[in-house]
Amino acid sequence: MPTYRYKAYAAGGRQSAGAMEAESPREAQQLLRQRGLYATEVVAELSAIPAGLSFFQRGISLAELSLMTRRLATLIGSSVPLYEAMTTLYEQEAEGELKRVISRVRDRLAQGSNLAAALGAEPAVFGESYVSMVAAGEAGGALETILERLAEFLEEQQRVKSRITAALAYPILMILVGGGVMLFLLGFVIPKIVVIFEQNKAALPLITQLLIKSSNALRQGWWLLLLLAVAGVAGYRKLMKRETFRLKRDGLLLRFPLVGSLLRTLILSRFARVLGLLLTSGVPVIRATEITGDVVVNRVYRAFLHGARERLAEGADLSQTLKGSDLFPPLLVHMIAVGEKGGALEEMLLKAGTAFDKEFDTAVTRSMSLLEPLLVLGMGVAVGTVVIAVLLPIFQLNQLVK
After folding, report:
1. Among 52, 97, 243, 350, whose CB has the most other CB atoms within 10 angstroms?
2. Is residue 325 part of a domain?
3. Could you tell me which of 114, 131, 121 has the C-alpha nearest to residue 283?
4. Is 104:122 a contact under the CB 8 Å cutoff?
5. What's the predicted TM-score (pTM) here?
6. Count of domains forming the chain
7. Nearest of 289, 391, 280 to residue 343 by alpha carbon
8. Are 147 and 178 found together in one domain?
9. Whole-number Å distance between alpha carbons of 301 and 264
10. Do 359 and 247 share a structural domain?
11. Cα–Cα dist 17/41, whole Å
12. Same domain, 222 and 150
């Protein structure tokens, strides 16, 4: 589904901006009106961005973007003028999408644009949080520091992504191998063995009868199973176009055993880190909360954070706003409250993000250590069931022969 960036006004005249998914600009305007916003500009991004990964575009990896950011921070820290720094990055970069993006950014700098505006013209690559932090760094004269923080954050996101990929690789491989073995046994091995049983016309055990029926159903109705799978995927993609369905799906994911807990921890880690970085960079809390809501993957959290802007605008503290929801654990709310009272909200948020990162790593390690033997056990039980179903009739035939 295409992603659109919008600028709009609320009923009270307050300006708002962000990103949303919709089928067309007209649908995006309708969704904004449902939120009480009146769009002044709706622009399609260059390409769709994977949900929640607003820092990079397909074709530009987090590793590439973090390396570019760190190189730029190093050059600026060495007192290299911004345009020359971009030229150096362009010359060092290999051919690809990122080099073309750097070229366009450099051209805008040559025309007199500042860095934040030059990067903001590439919304499919540099997310709103990235651009806002750069803008705050330019305004406060701390661009080098801000870029280093951005590079560290992107590197951390890459580490988390790699951790998730590595954790899921073994279970997915086991499921594919186990499923392939079962399909091979049911589709090719069992039919040849069944011929022996049918020739003897002996009474078969119930488990063998069920296995034979499953094999026949797979061989005769494989096309129906394939058709149902295709229809299921098509139906799911159609439902995913509805924002209400996506909201319900995200809420259901949070309630799943094990998966929901891991997902919640990952979301809280990103929330705390992004909000802490934005506040540290000098972005106002209301604007920072709005940007963080667009970065967070889960729509349940996103909807709550969008609504939280109203309470923050009315003068409520961040801790008071989050306390009214069970989406945020009491520990996080307490840390934010302590940070607000002590004037160290940014530090508390970053500490909370680090704590949730460690909790996520521990939970993934513990879950994988439990899941891997369970998958092996499940595969063994499935194959063992087939073996028993085949051997039982053979034992019975031996008894009849004796």
Report:
1. 350
2. yes
3. 131
4. yes
5. 0.70
6. 3
7. 280
8. no
9. 10
10. yes
11. 9
12. no
In a domain, 179, yes or no: yes
Which residue bears the tokens 């030229």? 87
Q: Calculate mean pLDDT across residues 225-243.
A: 88
Q: Domain of residue 281: give its range.
A: 169-402
Question: Please, are residues 385 and 207 in contact by the beta-carbon 8 Å criterion?
Answer: yes
Angstrom distance (rounded) from CA 3 to CA 28: 9
Per-residue pLDDT, averaged over 248-264, amounts to 89
Identify the domain boundary among 156, 183, 214: 156
Same domain, 303 and 184: yes
Task: Return d(Cα 249, Cα 226) in angstroms, integer.
Answer: 24
Mean pLDDT of the chain: 82
Is 161 within a domain? no
Q: How is residue 311 written in tokens? A: 């309470």
Our measurement of the distance from residue 79's CA atom to the centroid of its chain's CA atoms, rounded to an integer in Å, reads 37
pLDDT in tens, 267-287: 999 899 888 888 888 888 888
According to DSSP H, which parts of 240-298 are helical?
243-255, 259-280, 285-295
Confidence label for 329 from pLDDT (cuts 50, 70 and 90): very high
Q: Of the ranges 23-37, 66-80, 96-110, 274-288, which one carries the lowest mean pLDDT score?
A: 23-37
Structure confidence by residue, pLDDT tens digits, 193-223: 777 776 766 677 888 888 888 888 888 888 8
Tell whether 359 is covered by a domain: yes
Could you give the CA distance from residue 313 to residue 285 in angstroms, rounded to a whole number? 9
Amino acid, res. 18 = G
Q: Is 163 exposed, middle or buried (0-12, 13-18, 19+ CB in 10 A)?
A: middle
Query: Domain check: are 178 and 84 in the same one?
Result: no
Local confidence band at 53 (pLDDT 50, 70, 90 cut-offs): very low
N-terminal to C-terminal alpha carbon distance within the chain: 68
Residue 240 corresponds to which amino acid?
M
Distance CA 160, CA 191 (A): 46
Q: How many CB atoms lie within 10 A of CB 264?
A: 21
Whether 98 and 232 map to the same domain: the answer is no
pLDDT tens digit sequence for 355-376: 998 998 888 888 888 888 888 8
Query: Which of 156, 181, 213 delimits the end of a domain?
Result: 156
